[in-house]
Amino acid sequence: MADEVFDLLVVGAGPTGLACAIEAQKAGFKAVLVDKGCVCNSLFHYPSHMTFFTTSELLEIGDIPFPSPNAKPTRNEALQYYRQVAAHYKLDVRQYQRVERVTGADGDFTVHMVDRFDRPTELKARKLAIATGYYDLPNMMGIPGEDLSKVHHYYDDPHPYFGLDVVVIGGKNSAAIAALELWRHGARVTLVHREGEIHRHVKYWIKPDIENRIKNGEIKAYFNSRVVKITPDTVEIESPEGREMLRNDFVFALTGYHPDFAFLEGLGVRFEGQDKLPVCNAQTLESNVPGIYLAGVIVAGSRTNEIFIENGRFHGRQIAQALAAKTAVHP
User: Fold this and answer.
1) What topology does CATH give the domain 151-253?
2) Which phi and psi (to 5°) does residue 85 adopt?
3) Do domains 5-136+257-326 and 151-253 have the same CATH topology?
4) What is the CATH number of domain 5-136+257-326?
5) Closest Cα to residue 51, out of 212, 174, 218?
6) Shortest CA distance to 121 belongs to which of 139, 104, 100, 103?
7) Using one digit for the tens of pLDDT, what is the confidence trace for 276-323?
8) Closest Cα partner for 17 from 298, 330, 328?
9) 281-311: b (≥16 Cβ within 10 Å) or e
10) Is the pLDDT of residue 245 over 70?
């Protein structure tokens, strides 16, 4: 209905966004979700054989159990779980709708979107919750050749790189996992990391594995080094021994990701400090813009290692409680 007005519109249909809509519905509010991709779009783009670092009960939302035969669930199990939760609560999810801008004010927002074919649509809502995560925006290196088709900022599957020379840039979990999987599936792997060793926070069962592969010479590693140029056939690095040119077919620049600060700024959200922490009430999660709430990892600004599904999933309850405290329920 063109004149339909929702009590809460959630931007982002990942686990945190789904939890926001569920808790709003439980509190008697009419909620809708919009996402520029599919449900749990970021999770869908995780490596196809990924296993979570946490247990299934810590990924649960909406008081729905997450059964898994594994100690740590897989990406595919999680996708199935969140689909089933969305279906159970009959969530209104508008997929493949990219939010371009928001007009109006608290109590009367209009969210302007375009679909996959750039056709404009809009929805009206009294309140907004922004749960856009950060995985869609990789940290760029700003070096020549970074835009070549051989360079990827996401790792998916090792099979296409069998028998090829692959450089993995980074030294945290995603880089270590990619390097190990690529090597185990027949790629010749070189790891380049700006620090002096594999990051201390790499998971305890992965860290010794990657360190032993490096020690045995099975994976070549350059520490205290950085990539300075990429060409179709080479990668140029700057190491403590000077500049080196590496023969190369593909590059995985797994250098981290960041929230869409420009989108938040466009909404009027202010930031504080070097880590760009958004101004946000710690109890209600309402931003400095009345009626706009923040949920999930974006609450921590650029400190993306502080909020995960395990703790971000509770933000929906905080927002629903805040709505119930200050907003009359509209039928």
Assistant:
1) FAD/NAD(P)-binding domain (3.50.50)
2) -65, -45
3) yes
4) 3.50.50.60
5) 174
6) 100
7) 999 999 999 999 999 999 999 999 888 877 777 888 899 999 999 999
8) 298
9) eeeebbbebebbbbbbbbbbbbebeebbbbe
10) yes
**Of 145 and 258, more confident:** 145
Residue 331: per-residue pLDDT: 44
Domain residues of the chain, as ranges?
A: 5-136+257-326, 151-253
Q: Alpha-carbon distance 285 to 265, whole Å?
A: 16
What was the pLDDT predicted at 201? Answer: 85
Choose among 159, 155, 156: nearest CA to 168. 155
How far apart (Å, rounded) are the C-alpha atoms in residues 298 and 246? 37
Name the token pair of 223. 């520490």
Residue 252 pLDDT exceeds 90: yes
The closest alpha carbon to 59, from 34, 42, 79, 41, belongs to 79
Q: Identify the pLDDT of residue 330.
A: 46
Confidence (pLDDT) at 48: 83
User: Cα(129)–Cα(320) distance, rounded to whole angstroms?
Assistant: 10
**Phi, psi for 234 (deg, rounded to 5):** -140, 165
Burial of 205 (0-12, 13-18, 19+ CB in 10 A): exposed
Ranges assigned E (strand) in the chain: 5-11, 31-34, 93-94, 98-105, 108-114, 120-130, 151-152, 165-169, 188-192, 220-222, 226-230, 234-239, 242-247, 250-253, 271-272, 277-278, 292-294
Q: What average pLDDT does the structure give for the chain?
A: 94
Mean pLDDT over residues 54-63, rounded? 93
